[in-house]
């Protein structure tokens, strides 16, 4: 097996494991009676990482249709989790930005989720935990060149 083949195989395994983790998060969220969809948290996370975006760019980044995002944004505005901001590039348009309350809600949801997942990962050795931290860091570093470009491309 070549190095490129090993990387491809490992990346495939990582994507599959990540998908299973997201599925588990969906079950946990549903089973804990959360009224919020994963799309809500994903949208807040996108806004936290990217800063304010137009609705169309936010829909693409959050992987939902624009009418769905428009409805989602309306609910998030009502909760005070996002705010409509003027678009400096176009006075007729607005951007959506995460509010302090949205940042707090996202942080609390992530903490709750981590607490629920802890029993499944609490037996990690220090070495395994370090490997997991390095994996997260590597993935973040390598996708950093992809994600912002996609968000910026969609926003323009």
Automatic annotation (TrEMBL):
HTH marR-type domain sequence ranges: 7-141
Protein name, per record: HTH marR-type domain-containing protein
Listed InterPro entries: HTH-type_Bedaq_tolerance, HTH_MarR-typ, WH-like_DNA-bd_sf, WH_DNA-bd_sf
A Pfam family the protein falls into: MarR_2
């Amino acid at each position: 097996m070549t190095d490129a083949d090993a990387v491809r195989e490992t990346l495939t395994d990582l994507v599959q494991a990540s998908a299973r983790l997201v599925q588990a998060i969906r079950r946990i969220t549903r089973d804990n009676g959360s009224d919020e969809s994963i799309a809500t948290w994903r949208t807040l996370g996108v806004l936290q990482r990217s800063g304010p975006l137009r609705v169309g760019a936010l829909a693409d980044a959050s992987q939902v249709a624009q009418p769905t995002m428009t409805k989602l944004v309306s609910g998030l505005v009502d909760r005070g989790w996002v705010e409509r901001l003027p678009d400096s590039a176009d006075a007729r348009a607005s951007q959506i930005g995460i509010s302090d309350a949205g940042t707090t809600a996202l942080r609390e949801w992530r903490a709750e989720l981590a607490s629920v997942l802890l029993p499944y990962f609490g037996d990690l050795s220090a070495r395994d935990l370090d490997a997991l931290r390095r994996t997260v860091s590597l993935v973040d570093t390598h996708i950093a060149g992809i994600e912002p470009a996609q968000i910026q491309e969609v926003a323009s």
